[in-house]
Write a structure and sequence with these properties.
Low-confidence stretches: 22-63
Shape: elongated
Mean pLDDT: 74
Radius of gyration: 17 Å
Strand order of the largest sheet: 1-2-3-4
Oligomer: single chain
CATH architecture: Roll
CATH class: Alpha Beta
Largest sheet: 4 strands, antiparallel
Number of strands: 4
Number of domains: 1
Number of helices: 3
Strand content: 25-35%
Distance between the termini: 65 Å
Order of helices and strands: HHHEEEE
CATH topology: Nuclear Transport Factor 2, Chain: A
Length: about 160
Amino acid sequence: MSVVVAAVIVGGIILTVYSTANAYSTVNGENSWNGFVGWTNSSGMAGTQGWPRGGMRGRGCFGFVEVSDEFKDNVVNIAKNDTDVQNLLNDGYNITGVRPIIKTIVEGDGSVVTKATSAIVMLEKDTSHASVWVDVENAKVTEIVILTRTVIEKP
């Protein structure tokens, strides 16, 4: 029994880490997530320090986490109700993805519950990217991180 519980816990941890680092989704019919992964992975940018650096970051053995339209719509609606997010959208930012943050909890009785308790809404505008951290359980935005990339090309 303890081996099964340990396997479930390890599996939950792997799923949580992998899904956080590799969720791929579409918003408004566009698949734009792959180009956005680079600035949010293991470098500590956008408050994501601790995501894995290696093998599971790509299209690893587990595949992508599929996010339902209902979950995406709920997360996007929560984000759009925040005045700072409204200002970003009015300023020309576009929603390019929704990444669930999956949490696995071992209850007192040993049962394991895995749930997407929060999510990150990805926004883009020209060379700027924003990540909007949404607490789904409390229906509120908890953090917004905006990064701007400046490229100086030299001949």
